[in-house]
Amino acid sequence: MGIFKKFFDKLKYTFKRTELDDDFYDELESILVSSDMGVETALDIMDELKDKCRAKLIKDIERAQAELKTLLVEKINVKPIEFEYPLIITVVGVNGVGKTTSIAKMTKYFLRNKKSVLLAAGDTFRAAATEQLNMWADRLKVKIVKQGEGADSAAVVFDAVNSMKAKKQDVLIVDTAGRLHTKVNLMKELEKINNVATREYPEAHRLNLIVLDASIGQNSIAQVKAFKDSVDIDGIILTKLDGTSKGGVVYPIINELNIPIVFTGFGESVDDLDSFDAERFVDKILM
Question: Between 20 and 30 A from 202 (CA), which of 19, 45, 177, 244?
Fold first, then answer.
């Protein structure tokens, strides 16, 4: 059945009803809440759906389902990010969200699109982080800039940016430590990394992408807000959508913070990364 299996099953059951009564709307509201949208977002969507159905004199379930799909697409169909080159991407996120794997998947994505890629091992707090990124660099046959454990992350970025300029690379992807949002000193280090990249290569386009684990639900919103306090967040990579993760948290994130989803990750393979497509995403919810 793919991802969101339980959510799909419940929706299918709901749409077997024959009339748009209060029970129908109550069931649908419950399903939306259980998809990790959050109560407030689910209530707003239900109110809009009811208004649309009344205004269009919709009485049957199939037309209501079509209206719901249109509404759900509109809610997350914000203007997508258009990649411009040369491009420096700084990747942030807490430990365990799949950050390094997402960097590997992005690397493969850009390579498929005929772009040259350079990696920077900016997570110098853990030797294992550099080793893992180095492994991916070897597998994907791309260059990596790294230093020893405990080195200054900003110094790594300084070297990487200047290497990017000298070799005229299209994309530089910078890994960063899996910093907790409560550790102010680590957040300041992130600001320093961004300042170095901007200062050393002002002509390059800059993106800060945060990696979020779809399975943690509403906690994702707190993570994004915490990082936004230190750096501008331009987009989201939503990972771990290959299991029972629901992914509905994208709705309050986009609604409250107006940050687009750039990529979605559906598996462990380096090819399991898709550009975010709102209509395809909603189709999977309502299939």
Answer: 177
